[in-house]
Structures are given as structure tokens and as C-alpha cells.
Amino acid sequence: MSDAPKKLHIKTYGCQMNVYDSERMAEAMGTEGYVLTDDPAEADMVLLNTCHIREKAAEKVYSDLGRLRPFKEAKPELKIGVAGCVAQAEGEEIMRRMPLVDLVVGSQNYHRLPEMVAATARGERPVDTEFPVEDKFEKLPERPATGRPTAFLTVQEGCDKFCAFCVVPYTRGAEVSRPVARILAEAGKLVAKGVKEITLLGQNVNGYHGEGDGGVWGLGRLVRELARIEGLERIRYTTSHPNDMADDLIEAHGAEPKLMPYLHLPVQSGADRILKLMNRHHTAEAYLRLIERIRAARPDILLSSDFIAGFPGETEQDHRDTLALIEEVGFGAAFSFKYSPRPGTPAAERAGVDPEVADRRLHELQALITRLQHESQAAMVGREVGVLFEKPGRLPGQWVGKSDYLQAVHVTSETPLQGALAKVRITASGPNSLAGVLV
Ligand code: 5AD
Ligand code: SF4
Fold it and tell me: Where does [4Fe-4S] cluster 2 bind (predicted)?
């Protein structure tokens, strides 16, 4: 046996929380002597960190597993693991359908990964999709420096909202908030390692209610406390529910300069009938009034949302109401998805919209969103904006980063800009990014 490090390949699907979880799993396996590789062909272990939010995402996992078969045939000692929300939702079913899989680890059990890998070496095929009481993050090793100026930090997991289309309450479980002290400690360590921007993550992040000094803290208070960390320059959070936008969080957008002027606040539909069928517990009007209050606190905030096209029962008028709401808010960014029935959710039992109609509505949503996004980008030309540079661009001397409003910006500079936070004057707006010059 050689003692060359073993190689781990992780493929991450879906949301930013999976990106964060993949990093933490890589660190856990790092203490077992594994180093990361981009190439599955040279890996000793392949881990798929999966997403169950829409049918396509879940099916992709099975086809990717099929594609790993030749690697396993060439190297029978290759370990294949399935993690994330498909693992959580389908557990044993994956083992039955895919004999090449060695372990299945649900989203709350990543701290158990090393012992599970050890069990596979004894010929076992462990499955762990329990919801344990302990905080998995406390059991995972400390995070090493990455050299990147941005980091994710999970503060809350799970969701109690039960929107009629959504699997998250089933795959990620009930809402749990990490205690304030642990979040502050993790943030402090990230900043000491050179991180300047932290994005707080949670499936329902603005529902954060963690144990802090003197009782339970909401997200607004947590943000203000994090903002006191010297060297931390930018704070973001995602994803939020309209009904959990507390007054002090809205105020923080006006009062706390480190809280970036970008908010992803999904509304899903602009039609009250559909919002009710979706179990959203708010009307379109309530959303619009909320947006007014947020803009009163921070007039330049860039707003983003998610929309679903072709939710069961959606009429042409409902769809037009959604287009009208998008136009009225003037989102600077947004995501739209064709409704996908998810097993176990209430909406999956209902009669669906004709798929061709749903496709056409999706295209209409996307066309409107793209137009608004371009308008919002074009309006940046001539303005000065903060940019945190993350990496070199494609062209020589080019550096790319994100503006305060989370837009991609590139500039040309002789001196390296990696990790620098600088003021940039925007000179041009392209389809997906802005160009500028250092001020
Ligand atoms: N079908 C289509 N889109 C969905 N989303 C969640 N569940 C579904 C589904 N079953 C979308 C919502 C959510 C985003 C993350 O994914 O818009 O905000
Ligand atoms: Fe899913 Fe978000 Fe609704 Fe929770 S609030 S059920 S995560 S869409």
C-alpha cells in the first residue's frame, strides 16, 4: 500500500446550502486523509451531494450514478456515496435501484460520514437519514482557509412553511436555528482567514430564531452583531419568506452599511388564488406593501424573487397577474421554474396545467425577467459601486467580482485584485455582467 493521499470527487447539485455542505464534507474527509479532485476517473471516492427540489434535479442524480458504472468496474474499490436531499428523501430506495452505491447519507448526518466510509471498508452499505438532535456542524472539523474572500455560513436549516409544491420541509426537516455564539465564532474564524463577505444561509433564513444573550434573537439582531466584526465588510442572507421580514430586519437594511442592498424574497406568484392554493399565507398586495417598506428603508435595494409557472389550477388570468406583479416590482433579478410535481407534497395530488401551456408561460416569465434584469444592469452605467474581487477573469489582466448588488463586474488591472474590495465606475453593461474601471 502506498500512503499517497486518497482522492475525493464531490459533485454538488442545487442550492448554496449544498455548496456549503459539500465544503464541510470535504473538510470532514480531509481529516481522514482525502484530498479533493475534479476528476472522477482518478477518485477513490465519489460523493454526489444531491437536490430534490424539482423532478429534473432528482432524475439527474440517477443518470449520473449510471455514468459512474464504468469507473467502478475499472476500480472496484471506488466508493460511491449519495448525500443531500435525494439521499434524505429516497434513502434505501437508492440502494435498491443502484447496487453500485456504497453509502447514503442524509443532509443532517454529514458528521457521521467518516465512520460510514469506514463501515463500507468492512463491506457494509450504510444508510443514515435520521434527523439527529445534535448540531452536525459542531461535530465537523474547523474550516480551513480557502483563499477566497467570500464564504457561506449556515445559520438555520429546515422549513415549517409547507408550501404546497415544496419538498424542503420533508427533506431538510423542521426549522432549526444555530445558537448565536456558534455563528459569531464561525464568522470570526472565517474573517481571521481572510473572508470579507459572508452569506448567511437558511431555507427560511429570515425565520432565524437562535439562542442568544438574553433570549431568542431574530435575524436582524444577528446581522447587526455580525456587522461589528472588524474586517467583515459585507453581509448577505438567503433565502427568505415574505411573512418573516421582521421590522428590525427591514430597519437593518437602512441602518447597517455592511448589509448589502440585495434581497432575494421569493413570492412564487402574483395571483391571490394561486398564492392561497400554494399555502403561502400572504396576498400579492401584502407582498407589494412589504416591498414598499423595504424600499423605504433602502431605496436602492435590488430585489430578486422566484416564480413557478403552471402551478396546478393556474389560469391565464393568474399568469397575467404574475407578469403584472413582476413588472410592478421591477425585479433586478429573478428565477422562474416550471412547476414539477414532487412526491409527497399536497400539490402533486392535483390536476396539472397542460405542459405546453406551462412551457409557454415559463418562457413569458423568463422573457420579462430578462428584460428587467437588462434594464437594471444598464441603469448601473455611469454609477460608482463597491466590488469585491474574487478571481481572475478570462482575458489577461482581467479581474471579476460582485457588486454590492450581486452583479458580476469585470475590470482590467495591472495589479492583482483578488480579495480586494474597491470602488468601480461602471462603463458598460453586457447580457450577464458589467464592465468598469477602478475609481
Ligand atoms: N416545482 C417547481 N419549482 C419549485 N420550487 C420549489 N419547489 C418547486 C416545484 N415543485 C422553486 C420555488 C423555490 C425555488 C427554490 O424552487 O420557486 O423558491
Ligand atoms: Fe419550500 Fe421555501 Fe415554501 Fe419552505 S418557504 S416550503 S423552503 S418554498
Answer: 159, 163, 166
